């Protein structure tokens, strides 16, 4: 099986959009913010290109606040990170280190869940 690849196409009217390739079967994806799933994510096959899926992630307005907000998109079956996007609001940031730190926190949470699952499965 080919590796899933998710490519951002745009953010328009509060919706992140991308194209998912690398599979013929409809995959299950999850979008999280601070380790909490985001509702309303849609995934549909591209009518023009079989094997390509169009992904739409509505950005909840209640999650937009001062600072850096990072959203992580994962494959539910493997819990592999496919893509992430960051929204910075408020004061301009000279360097984007806060976004990188937020992404590292999200990835650390994902690793902790995978490690705990591994410990339970190997007992």
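^ Assign residues to that structure.
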């Amino acid at each position: 099986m080919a590796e899933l690849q998710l490519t951002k196409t745009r953010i328009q009217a509060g919706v992140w959009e991308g194209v998912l390739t690398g599979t013929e079967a409809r995959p299950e994806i999850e979008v999280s913010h601070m380790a909490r799933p985001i509702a309303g994510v849609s995934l549909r096959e591209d009518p023009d290109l079989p094997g390509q899926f169009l992904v739409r992630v509505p950005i909840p307005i209640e999650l937009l606040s001062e600072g850096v907000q990072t959203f992580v998109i994962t494959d539910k079956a493997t819990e592999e990170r496919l893509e992430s996007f960051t929204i910075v609001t408020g004061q301009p940031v000279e360097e984007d280190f806060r976004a990188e730190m937020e992404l590292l926190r999200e990835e650390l949470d994902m690793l902790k869940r995978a490690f705990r699952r591994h410990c339970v499965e190997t007992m």
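Residues 5-122 form a domain with the Immunoglobulin-like fold (CATH 2.60.40).
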